[in-house]
Amino acid sequence: MIDLNDIVVFARVVEAGSFTAAARLLAMPKTTVSRRVAALEREVGVRLLQRTTRSLNLTDAGRLYYERSSQGLRTIEEANLHLAEARAEPSGTVRISAPVGFGGHFLIRAVVDFLTLYPKTNVELRLTDEKLNLVEDGIDLAFRTGRLEDSTLIARKLGSTHRLLCASPAYLARYGMPESPADLARHRCVIAGPSASGAHWVLDGPQGQETVVVAGRFAANEMQAVVAAALADFGIAQLPQPIAEGLINEGRLRRVLDGYTTPAGGLHVLYPSSRHLSPLVKAFIDLAVERISNRVNTA
Q1: Is the separation of the CB atoms in 5 and 22 below 8 Å?
Q2: Each residue's pLDDT tens digit, 174-199
Q3: What is the pTM assigned to this prediction?
Q4: Which of 40, 147, 170, 276, by CA, is between 20 and 30 Å from 131?
Q5: Which of 146, 227, 226, 214 is nearest to 183 (CA)?
Q6: Which residue from 184, 161, 178, 167 is spatially nearest to 248, judged by alpha carbons?
Q7: Separation between Cα atoms, residue 41 and residue 18, nearest integer Å
Q8: Closest listed residue to residue 143, CA positions, set 292, 280, 6
């Protein structure tokens, strides 16, 4: 029966170009290397190597045997590597980017649970509504909401979310509750964007999709600021459903136009395609998916 170790030794001799170099690579005596190759040749019944005092050459049979057997060895090595990674306890630092509103309300629970579960890990969480370049900024993975731009990133969809219209009780007491999307034109709205000029909202409702022009005194391209403005009575805002529902349940905001939401947007986790997905990053993604998917509408 052929000894797999003999095949490994034969492959290393071919790759190193000599018995002496292979012996150094394998950390075994040269005589042992020679003996194992000879044993393999006896088992397969053909000469694999032509040996002279000055050179070492593959026979035709040896070349074919090396090509086929080396493929199998690489498959075994890869299987061993994946098994070792699967068994290894995650350790090191994982660098994550996420939108501010999403990170503060969705992601922080997953981060806390991850750090508790894996004590050899660290997390660096960058909360920003800017879309960072993951490779240039050294980010291992990013969470993104809405429509994805064309990218070389690998994306895994976690589900879909939408936004609800909300305002503070004090604002509604002063300006009244809108009864239709058209009423938003006479209200102050908090704009989630760089400018309030030319803002419009697309809403899904009982009559289908409607687009309404809105205006207000405050605009911000960062969700935490939009939430703060709504709580400070500056007007009606579109807030991600989990954030909105939490503030509504606390009585700090009230739902506006109950039958309307924004069109559903995707929720994705992304990571660079050029990187091997390490056990550390994979462990965080798996845990985050479990925690977050329970809080969004899966698609």
Answers
A1: no
A2: 999 999 999 998 999 999 877 777 78
A3: 0.55
A4: 276
A5: 214
A6: 167
A7: 17
A8: 292
